[in-house]
Amino acid sequence: MMKNYQKFYILAVIVFSVSFIFPIITYASTEIYFQNQPKQIINGDTFSLDLKIYSDMSINVIDGTILFDKDKLEIKNIEKENSIFSMWAKEPVFDNKLGFISFVGGIPEGFKGNNSQVLKINFVAKKSGEATVLFQDIFKVFLNDGLGTQINPSLRPVKISISQKDYLKNISEYVFVMSQNYIYYIALCILFVLFIIIRVYLKYKNNYEK
């Protein structure tokens, strides 16, 4: 296991060194995007965005920074268990005060495919309004060619609409639930009274017949 990590770190160093000295840039069809956006988000809700990748060429390193509206959003945690990237030269980290996520992930054997998971980001909606989650311009992807060939990926940000809590609606729902419970208790009381009346009637009838 340690040998694999050592190979990855050596590979990452070579990739970055070669890319700085001989910046090879290709325009392979590679796309980074968000998926699983909820249709309706209320202030105070917790929701998730899946960061996905598509590439028609084999890649092995991703180096990126994601920016988010720190006034309206807060990151609860980041999940990488289902990520296609098995090694992390830089573990995914986030800063809610500055509003960013940063990471460097790798997959030594390379990856080529569609709609594959990079990270799952769990947010908390802090304030109503429209919030944007986007990519920093220096977001990098590298081909699995041993040359440090950098890809300029297509980046798809996402806009999130956060609604204010409807307190009147919450109150009306509460009143409705309470009224339903009130009717239920009244019905129980009526049944109990009827039961007592029937018992008294039957007892009186039996005594009268005797």
What does this protein look like?
This protein has helices at 2-21, 167-209, and strands spanning 25-26, 30-35, 41-42, 46-68, 73-79, 87-95, 100-125, 129-135, 140-143, 150-151, 154-156, 158-163. It has 210 residues and is of the alpha+beta class. It folds into 2 domains: 2-163, Immunoglobulin-like; 167-210. Strand 6 and strand 7 form a beta hairpin. The longest helix has 43 residues, at 167-209. The chain is elongated, with a radius of gyration of 30 Å. Mean pLDDT is 82; it is low at 18-27.
Taken from the alpha-carbon principal axes, the silhouette is elongated
| Proportion of residues in extended strands | over 45%
CATH architecture of the largest domain: Sandwich
CATH first level of the largest domain: which class? Mainly Beta
Radius of gyration over alpha carbons? 30 Å
> Termini, distance in Å?
94 Å
Quickly count the helices. Answer: 2
Low-confidence stretches: 18-27
Give the total of domains: 2
**How confident overall, as mean pLDDT?**
82
Percent helix range? 25-40%
How many E-type strands?
Answer: 12
Structure class: alpha+beta
The profile of the biggest β sheet is: 12 strands, mixed
Q: Kindly identify the CATH topology of the largest domain.
A: Immunoglobulin-like
Indicate the topology.
Blueprint: H1 2-21, E1 25-26, E2 30-35, E3 41-42, E4 46-68, E5 73-79, E6 87-95, E7 100-125, E8 129-135, E9 140-143, E10 150-151, E11 154-156, E12 158-163, H2 167-209
Parallel strand pairs: 1-10, 2-11, 3-12
Antiparallel strand pairs: 2-4, 4-7, 4-8, 4-9, 5-7, 6-7, 8-12, 9-10
